[in-house]
Amino acid sequence: MHSVELLPDEATDRAVRDVWRRLADEGLPSQAAHRHPTNRPHLTLATADVLSAGVHARLRQTFAGLPVPLRLGGLLRFSGRTQVLAWAVQPDDVLVHLQEAVWRVVREAPRSGRPNPLLDPVRWVPHITLGRGRDTAWAVPDDRLLPARADGTAAATGLWTEARYYDSVTRTTGRLGPGPKP
Question: Which residue among 13, 34, 150, 162 sits deepest, i.e. has the most Cβ atoms within 10 Å of its Cβ?
Answer without folding.
Answer: 162
